[in-house]
Design a protein that fits this description.
The complex is a heterodimer of chains A (208) and B (106). Chain A is α+β, with helices and mostly antiparallel strands. Chain A has 4 helices and 11 strands; from the N terminus they run E-E-E-H-E-E-E-H-E-E-H-E-E-E-H. In chain A, helix 1 crosses helix 2 (83-96). The chains are: A alpha+beta (208), B mainly beta (106). Bound molecules: zinc ion. The site of zinc ion (ZN) has 7 residues of chain B, from loops.
Amino acid sequence: MIDARARSPLAHRAPLAGDDLRLAERPFEGLLALRGEADELDPAFGAATGLALPRACRGTSRGPGSSALWLAPDEWLVVTPAVEDAARLATELALALAGLRHQVVDVSDYYTVVQVSGRATRAALAKLVALDLHPRAWRRDEVLGTHLAKAIVQIWLVAGETDAGGAEARVVVRRSLADYVWCLLAEAGREWGLDPQRPIGRVRLEAV
Amino acid sequence: MLLVPCPNCGERDQSEFHYGGEAHRTRPTAPETLSDDEWADYVFMRTNTKGVFAERWCHTAGCRKWFNALRDTGSDAFLAVYRMGEEPPRLGGEEKEEAPADEAFA
Ligand SMILES: [Zn+2]
């Protein structure tokens, strides 16, 4: 169970929907940072999660529950849909990887995930990211670690234009930068009908 | 703006990187035995090469790994990248040898 007092980094923002673009937070996703040597960890990691460790930049491997994203040659982000799964998975991984040189840290609280979807997904993100996001250059299931404006993010294309629900990307961002990224994405989406958002700046959030 | 070739991620915008200065500067093993001049030389003095220069970069907004690069400081062209701890690769005969700037003042 999620602690009833838990408040996601973008709890003060309602989902936005425009003509070809939608913005929503995916609150309380489970996120684990895993570090170690890929060759050493892969068999035990695969046995515990059913996932292969992605070996190259942009690589991801997706399972029915959790997914693994490449962050660096010796670092991955394991994403599970619910934060309570992260705690369970962290325990399972600790058991499975015992004796191997590794590190598993539950970083669910450090980040949040912003979901960008709709036909204008690439076009809206491209206003804020320097990398080429054309379908030729950024394919489904690829994750890019880069800058989104001033924020360091991972952007992960979970569905392409030809998929049933249309294009969908997820932006993994530090919670302290979540509102900044949200407002910029809303601004980038104004031509597709998203409402402008006022940054909260230094205003302290009221407890709910 | 430079395009920096990260050995892990490929060519990325310079804004994703942190510059680490001259590569292959080894910390003296017994700094307590150095004179002030020798210590100052280690801490402050760099070769300021015009031409092929070995330097360190960190891909801070991407894979967050340090690596070495050979860059021509005259043209800003990246000639090679290689891992930390490796010797600089020998370049093909194309690049022109330039006299170290220091010698002009010797
Ligand atoms: Zn990199």
